[in-house]
Amino acid sequence: MEANLDDQAGEGLGYVMTQLLAAGAYDVYFTSIQMKKNRPAIKLSVLSAPSDRLALTKLILAETSTIGVRYQTWHRTIMRRHFVTATTPYGPVKIKVATYDGIIKKTPEYADCASLARIQQVPLMMVYQAALAALEQLDEEG
Amino acid sequence: MEANLDDQAGEGLGYVMTQLLAAGAYDVYFTSIQMKKNRPAIKLSVLSAPSDRLALTKLILAETSTIGVRYQTWHRTIMRRHFVTATTPYGPVKIKVATYDGIIKKTPEYADCASLARIQQVPLMMVYQAALAALEQLDEEG
Amino acid sequence: MEANLDDQAGEGLGYVMTQLLAAGAYDVYFTSIQMKKNRPAIKLSVLSAPSDRLALTKLILAETSTIGVRYQTWHRTIMRRHFVTATTPYGPVKIKVATYDGIIKKTPEYADCASLARIQQVPLMMVYQAALAALEQLDEEG
Amino acid sequence: MEANLDDQAGEGLGYVMTQLLAAGAYDVYFTSIQMKKNRPAIKLSVLSAPSDRLALTKLILAETSTIGVRYQTWHRTIMRRHFVTATTPYGPVKIKVATYDGIIKKTPEYADCASLARIQQVPLMMVYQAALAALEQLDEEG
Amino acid sequence: MEANLDDQAGEGLGYVMTQLLAAGAYDVYFTSIQMKKNRPAIKLSVLSAPSDRLALTKLILAETSTIGVRYQTWHRTIMRRHFVTATTPYGPVKIKVATYDGIIKKTPEYADCASLARIQQVPLMMVYQAALAALEQLDEEG
Amino acid sequence: MEANLDDQAGEGLGYVMTQLLAAGAYDVYFTSIQMKKNRPAIKLSVLSAPSDRLALTKLILAETSTIGVRYQTWHRTIMRRHFVTATTPYGPVKIKVATYDGIIKKTPEYADCASLARIQQVPLMMVYQAALAALEQLDEEG
């Protein structure tokens, strides 16, 4: 789903993003665009399940200044995901393991690292690097 | 319709936007993108009726540096619109009333507010706020 | 203060923004830029009091991937501000009144409108427009 | 001069740009930025003579939602300019000749090319290329 | 094909662009977007033949932080192309001639102009303008 | 140093970036801006030593379409840097160690990781994560 907004202030858009995510959108993002009459504007993009399209369209029409929403169907290739836990000097961090046709990717959860960083009063980067090192050792042992 | 332009100066693009709108495009907008070889570039997007696609494609090929145009069909959900007139201390302002499934939105026409602001030598924001107040009172009376 | 970041993921930047604001920065914003070797990057900009510069510089160096921060002094022309309260059908809304050399601007506080919208289950735009109408009537009475 | 705007719709900004240029600004441009609370915003930049700063500041404060404007002094290195006229198959085109320390640049005026393109009903690119060819021959003869 | 990336540094993206082009993508470009939680992010877009889709999808999943790729089919209108050579004072330059339904566009190859500019130690703009002038004379003779 | 460019194609700008870096600029980056008459444009920013300013200004004036360059002096806070080498399963990787007032940051050199990834035919992300893990172990031993 997409809508071009040239008559809406940025303040309101932060609010709309929160509402769309709460209403079940997979993802919501803004792209800066340039419209006619020298107007800087924002394109609002919403990715959702087909079954949520109508409810999210109504939310966009009610909460933003646009009078039209355009939409299209996309196909998706998604990796399978599961979670493991790695132990770092700062505490446990959840690791997202994604797999697809021989590809394996492991990424520490940012939210976990950020909350450890806040509690331990250390930079987020240090926690994140420690989590990466911990998962590397996990591999060698596993 | 979309085309990526990395060998066209910005000056020419302002001209092309005017021409595409004059030729019947619903909407024309630019998105800044980054292409290969460190080239900043512009994606030109055109929304139009399917029947205008061929004429607008020819216009893009003739007036821009691109040698290809890609296109796709979108569906649209559009609110019904009509106009009423509100009276402000600065003069009359046309109000766009948009309705869809119980949602009602009223927005003052910017062009009207801007021309009143110019004539009355007051900031556009004051005229716009007065128009919003006037339409709020319209509701209570109506 | 400014720093160019081409080796930092966006996830970490949201975290840094929160921390810089908590540490006393007036304003923090990101600008998308394009650096060498086809790298999309982010310029982090921080506006602060001169007395906070050192502490905020250390925070940027500790929390982001940059190894340098550049800075400059800006002058500012700021409007005087006070707050009044307007009554809307949805509840009271704080209004920011800003004045400077004959210019008077009144803007409803977004946070107030957003919390009323959430409580009353109505679109934020309706609350905001009602607040604007209420402040217009405030003028006529005052 | 710079101001960050997160509570102003794009429609109003096109109007402000026109007004600032009419009031004597050398150049006015918008940069898309990202502010706190997920707000997409616009940075308004104005380049002007120091003597116009106060009047343009008042215009920004009156016409936009910002309550503060920051400013700084820049130095400039500017090429000397004069104009010559080149003859193309479509009509005469003014050529801007800029010189600085041995560098000579000649660029056809876009406005002239655009008006010839409109009158002769040919693509702007053809007129522009013809103007470039004409100025190249100018060199050989001169 | 498209993927939104909010947990990947810009450095890695330059590398991915090179790899995708080497693997047969028609075009690869980045768009700056704004995602939830104040995260600046990059949308990676890849245009390719349908037959290359699977291989390129695997490359994106292996080399970037995303765990999903979405895709869609676009139609394209492409001009026919051939090349001629123009003679400039700096050396020969290949000219791309594109034709479609009566439209003819001629553009000097940037790579040729850039290598001549490097060899002759002159600004690229001078070589480019000379190439445009040369192709204009080509027309008159032809 | 800064220059606004609205009459230059993106192709030429990639070339200019390479030349400015070769001529000694610390950093060169592009920002997408929106100028008058609906023109999308690029702001070219160059960071350099004061002693290189004149030569780089001449290069900008000779190679781009701008007829003016503006400049300003910035102060900088820079971390001290040295390099160590870490051993990964894919080969040795140079690690940049930056220090400032108690802050220590270690980042693997992207160029090293990228060349190992190419030689070993593995994803760059795997090499980069291995380098981060290796430097974490370096700490424990050191």
From TrEMBL, chains A, B, C, D, E, F:
The keyword Zinc does not apply. The chain crosses the membrane at residues 12-30. Keywords: Membrane, Nickel, Transmembrane, Transmembrane helix. InterPro entries: Ni_insertion. The keyword Transmembrane helix applies. PANTHER family: NICKEL INSERTION PROTEIN-RELATED, PYRIDINIUM-3,5-BISTHIOCARBOXYLIC ACID MONONUCLEOTIDE NICKEL INSERTION PROTEIN. This is Lactate racemization operon protein [Lactobacillus delbrueckii subsp. indicus].
